[in-house]
Amino acid sequence: MSTPTLLERYRAMLEMRSFEEACQQGVPTREVHGELHSAIGQEAIAAGMLGSLREDDAVVSTHRNHLHALAKGVDPRAMMAEIFEKSTGLCGGFGGHMHLFDKRLRFSTTGIVGASLPVALGHAYAAVLGGTGAVAVGVTGDGGANIGSFHECLNIAGAWKLPLVVLIENNEWAISVPFSESTATPTLAERAPAYGAWGKRVDGLDVEAVTEAFAEAVAHARAGHGPAILEATCYRFRGHYEGDLDLYRKADEKAQRLAERDPLALTRQTLLDRGVAGEAELDAMAAAASARTAELLESVRRDPSPAPATAHDHVFVSGR
Ligand SMILES: Cc1ncc(C[n+]2csc(CCOP(=O)(O)OP(=O)(O)O)c2C)c(N)n1
Q1: Taking Cα atoms as reference points, which of 56, 59, 231, 228 lies closest to residue 157?
Q2: Segments forming the whole domain that contains residue 254
Q3: Per-residue pLDDT at 320 exceeds 60
Q4: What pLDDT, on the 0 to 100 scale, is given for residue 312?
Q5: Residues 222, 163: contact at Cβ < 8 Å?
Q6: What distance in angstroms lies between residue 62's CA and the mean position of ligand 1's atoms?
Q7: How far apart are alpha carbons 100 and 98 in whole angstroms?
Q8: Ligand 1 site: residues with CB under 6 angstroms?
Q9: What is the pTM of this model?
Q10: What is the whole-number distance in angstroms between the Cα of residue 317 and the centre of ligand 1?
Q11: 8-state DSSP, 102
Q12: Is residue 36 part of a domain?
């Protein structure tokens, strides 16, 4: 990757991390209700999605969804307002962090594990019927890859050569269940031949490697060759949700991963090693990203909550 591009990806990763950190602030203050799932430690995967997708491509994400939305180009202000349950949010503050939808950009999420793939499959089928050349990306975790719908969707996508890209974020844990104890094969990408799919496992901390592999997966699906599975390895830095006591992971495992597997620290080191930028410039970049996000949060906090009279809006039965 050319150095300006790596620097741009690094900037995107800084923005992503500061976005997640800003969202965390709303949990103890009770501005954000329900479980907030942070993707800190997984930024290189979302940043690796940049540059490969068209506006009319669909992305269907999971409960850990903020960074995929940013990668798809969803407006960060409208997203943060939704997460902070404001009427200015993407869904008027009714959805909250697990339900971010942007119809124009074909971005959606689901809190139901394994349910992102059937929705993405529908988008992929619609793209074929409409002859649009669009692809659909279905994101899942390693836990979600063991749900029946994963196999069903990939099988039919393979049989019908649908443009489905399955992006697996393998962060080693599905809440308290380690990947090694729940999965029959050492990797998930090696399942690909069973579905007639393209498959690759990539280091999800290496933004350059992810960028290249994601572009390859998208190109495969867009060319009409059928589905692609990209498994990106990473580590979940935070508890499953903010507030999770996280007693199932050993303290030394977490400490080691945090010290050695931080994608931001690794990318920063690459930029320094290649002489692309110096310490001071990279520090300034990080400070600018934090300042921009702090400003965004401050502005979102001034927005109104949805009016109580609208509580029954947007439901199938009014309840009145
Ligand atoms: C159908 C269903 N079963 C269980 C849950 C509860 N649940 C939420 S997240 C999660 C684990 C998901 O693990 P993984 O797919 O690896 O994603 P990660 O949280 O690691 O990003 C579970 C079991 C759910 N939301 N939906």
Answers
A1: 228
A2: 3-303
A3: no
A4: 82
A5: yes
A6: 9
A7: 6
A8: 63-64, 111-114, 140-144, 171, 173-175, 236, 240
A9: 0.97
A10: 29
A11: B
A12: yes
